[in-house]
Amino acid sequence: MQAVLYFSDKQVREKLFAFVDAAQGLMLVAGVRHGAAMTRPPQAREPFAALEDVFGHVLSQVIVADEGTPEGMWRDPLGDLGDRLYPEDKKRAYAAATGYVLLEGGRPRAVVRKHASPTEDLWFLQEALSRLSPAIPAPDPAKRPGHRRPEPAPKAPPRYGPASDEATPPRGRRAVSPPPAVPDAKDPWTVLGIERGTPKDEARKAFRTLIAQYHPDKVAHLAPEFHALAERRTREILDAWEALERDEE
After folding, report:
1. Among 20, 34, 43, 234, which residue's beta carbon has the most beta carbons within 10 A?
2. Do 49 and 82 touch, CB atoms closer than 8 A?
3. pLDDT band (50, 70, 90) for residue 189
């Protein structure tokens, strides 16, 4: 069984809690970004599709999709679930909100953090699930992400390289390549209006408070150009929060 909930749904938090409370066996809960340009539905993307195909008989899934719309950007159903599952452990609550939560009978059994690719996520999810159910085999240890054969040492370059049209630097000076261009990027701490190194729970509160100021209901009475400004500002705040989440990982 796969269920998909959306941030834009005003009842997304209540529906998510209802699925968790009604769970009988193993259940996976996770969030995904699902913008307008994404053609495949969330449940058809990896690692969810592979988990359903192979282990769907013992594992149900609830996928919470963030469409990136102003209507849903101020909601945090996964953060609320993390706080509910781990009320005394803020670190684990944050890990649950940003990763994959595995539950059994509505109770949290494991949290798997997200990795660089769905393929890596699938390996670690199967490893965690194999510890919870004898019906799910452990993944191949040889295919563990990051398990690579040592690469051979690079061959030394020829003593004299090919002729070059570049001018030879004067004797006693070294040729220095110009530093690579660094794209301009707004500092996420500055965007969120908090000091660098602020604890994650305090940073999340600041994020929620700030993004709520630009909710469509707050700017509905303003001119259209302010609506566009609010959407642009909302996107900046969301991007800044995602940057902090990536740094945390």
Report:
1. 234
2. no
3. confident
The closest alpha carbon to 232, from 83, 121, 73, 107, belongs to: 73
pTM for this predicted structure: 0.59
Instruction: Give dist(CA 9, CA 230) in Å, integer.
Output: 20
Enter the tokens of residue 27.
């259940």
Q: Which helix (H) or strand (E) holds 2?
A: strand 2-6
Which residues, in sequence order, are CB contacts of 123 under 8 Å at separation 6+? 139, 143, 144, 145
User: Whole-angstrom Cα distance, residue 16 to residue 78?
Assistant: 8
The number of angstroms, rounded, from the C-alpha of 132 to the middle of its chain's C-alpha atoms is: 24
What are the tens digits of pLDDT across the range 209-231?
A: 887 777 666 666 666 666 677 77
Give long-range contacts, CB 8 A cutoff, 24+ apart: 180-186: 186/236, 186/240
Q: Report the distance separating Cα 203 and Cα 243, nearest Å.
A: 12
Residue-wise pLDDT for 66-100, tens only, equals 887 776 667 788 888 999 999 988 888 898 888 99
Residue in the structure block whose two tokens are 């209507």? 71
Alpha carbon of residue 5 to chain centroid: 16
| Residue 75 C-alpha from the chain's centroid | 16
**Other CB atoms within 10 Å distance of the CB of residue 123:** 21
